[in-house]
Amino acid sequence: MSLGYDGKLFILAFDHRGSFQKKWFGLEGAPTPEDVERISDGKHLIFEGLLHALEQGSEAGVTGALVDEQFGTPTAIPSQAKERGLKLAMPVEKSGQNEFDFEYGDQFGDHIEQQDPDFSKVLVRYNSDDPDTEMNQRQLGRLKTLADWLHEHDRKFLFELLVPATDEQLSSVGGDDDRYDAELRPELMRRAIEDIQNYGIEVDIWKIEGVDERSDAEMLAQQTRVGGRDGVVCVLLGRGASDDKVDHWLRQAAPVEGFVGFAIGRSIWGDPLKGFLDGSIERSDAARQIGQNYLRFVDVYQQAESAALA
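The structure assignment produced for this chain is given below.
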């Protein structure tokens, strides 16, 4: 199997676990079986939104569902997604940790083979200037183990990269998160990708944070493809940002060669799910809103891509 991915990919991301049960269900710690049932039903509502998008004309072959095993399998979301011809992505990482580790330890491969997703996904926080260099090295070692296993088994690797600021970096921009995002993060992302590549970790699809300038999106896409990695592609994550912010990021990235879509979550389903849970929105209306929000972002991406080609 060649490295990379060929085709567009618009993923609805709802693989959140610790943050999902805490923010939307007010639960700390291990959920009870009854809690799992409620949380899994909320996940299925999000999936119903994706099914609504299919009914409204979304193409199954480019439509993706990123869902976790813990809360996705009780309502059979992975199998239902595959039956519908959707692209299925599932996380490998343990939820809610600053340092990447495997959710299922040494049995990660067994779980991947059992669920059989199209893409195995990790979320990794990595800053090349992090003073905890030992943590970075531990993460790289585990990630190489995973990447090598995936490609030995003809499976695709979806890598979500977050680059949190160090205290020194944030201080250098006056503690301003927006300045960090605009002035420092793009180059730090490029360096992180370079570090990961130089360690021998091969990624098929990079899921990366949005950037404000098209030139930065071009720089990042070029870095993901260095050294003959011509088939490697990027998708943009939403980071729970406002529609206007996500729209801007999409418009910068969509025309760039190497970007093929997005993986957006809370920006699509956050408000409808909240309304359903507090009783202000009926289930069918919440699912419809999720589907419409998803389709709107697809439209923003495709219009920006078409405008650049015109």
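Interim note for the steering committee: The chain has twelve helices and eight strands. The beta strands are 9-14, 63-67, 87-91, 119-125, 156-162, 205-208, 233-237, 259-264.
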